[in-house]
Amino acid sequence: MRAIFMGTPEFAVPTLQALIDHHEVIGVVTQPDKQRGRGKKVQFPPVKEKAVEYNIPVYQPVRAKEEAFIETLRQLNPDVIVVVAYGQILPESILNIPKYGCINVHGSLLPKYRGAAPIQWAVLDGEEKTGITTMFMEKGLDTGDMLDKVEVVLDPKETAGTLHDKLMEAGADLLLETLKKLEAGTAVRIKQDDSKSCYAKMLSKEMGKIDFTKSANEIERLIRGMNPWPSAYTSMSGKTMKIWDADVVEYQGNEKPGTIVDVTKDSILVATGENALALKEIQLAGKKRMQVQAFLLGRSVEKGIVLGD
Fold it and tell me: Residue 68 has what pLDDT?
C-alpha cells in the first residue's frame, strides 16, 4: 500500500518502522520541531528522526486543518493514512482522502479508555489487562469502528513506562495484520459500545501529588501510573520528594496518614488511609533517584515525621 504516516512521539516509531518495512511510505506527518532544554536547542520529534533516516518526505503543519496541507495530502493520493499518537484532531476532509480510510492505532482495548492517556490510566485504575486496538477514524474522539485487538497483561509492578514499551511493540504488529485484512477485503468493522467507554484525560503535574488519606493500594498505583511522567511526589521536612517505587504493607495504626511509622535498613514505612506504604526508591529535589537503602546510608530519617506537611 501507498501509505502516509501521522505520528509524533516515541510510541509511534515502531509502527512507522513496520510500515516502512512492509509498505510504501510516501510521506510522514508530525508535529512541528520544538526547542528543548536550557540551550533551547531545536529537537526533531522521534517520528521525524525515523523518517529522515529513510529519506521520507516530512510534513509538519502547525494545524492539520490548514487547507494547503490538506491539498498536499490529496495530491499524494495515499491508499491509507496510519495515525499513531499524532497529537491533533483530524478534520473530515483528511479522513475522506485515502481509499482504505484513516487507521488509528490506539493504546487501549476500546471502547474503554478513549482519550489522551489510556496507558497511564490502565495502571492508575489497577487494570489486569489492556492492549491495542486498530480502528477507523471518524469525527468523534476514538469512537470509530474497531478492526483488530491484541491484549497485553499487566505485571503486578507494571509502570506506565514499561507498559508504554510493551504496547508500542504490540501496535506495530497489529497494524500490519489490519492492513493485510483491509487489502484482502476481509477486515470486519465492529461498532463500539459507547456505554462501556471512559475518558482517559491527559495527566498534569498536579495529579502526581500524593494524598496519604487514600489507601496504600491507590497510592501505590499512582506511583506506578505516574512513572516516568509526571511522577508521584510529596514533601519531607520541607523538601519535595518523588517516590518511584513502593510496596503495600498490611498495617493497623491510628497515626495521621503520611506519618513515618518505621524505618528499616531498606525501607521507610508510611501510614496511609488504609494499610501502609514501604517506600523503596525515592528522589529528593536536586538529587538523583536512589534506593531507600542507599539513601539511609547518608541521611537519618526519624519515625514520626509527617510527609506532605
Answer: 97
Task: Give the pTM.
Answer: 0.95
* CATH label, 205-297, candidates 1.25.40.10, 3.40.30.10, 3.10.25.10, 3.40.50.720: 3.10.25.10
- For 185, residues 6+ apart whose C-beta sits below 8 A from its C-beta are none
d(C-alpha 202, C-alpha 115), whole Å? 8
Return d(Cα 309, Cα 301) in angstroms, integer. 15
Identify the CATH number of the domain defined by range 2-196.
3.40.50.170
Q: Binning pLDDT at 50, 70 and 90, where does residue 38 land?
A: confident
Residue 101: which residues within 8 A CB-CB, separation 6 or more? 80, 81, 95, 136, 137
The three cell numbers of residue 270 are: 508510611
Distance CA 104, CA 137 (A): 6
Domain boundaries, the chain: 2-196, 205-297
Angstrom distance (rounded) from CA 107 to CA 167: 7
At residue 165's C-alpha, the angle toward residues 163 and 171, to 5°, is 100
- Helix, strand or coil, per DSSP, at residue 181: helix
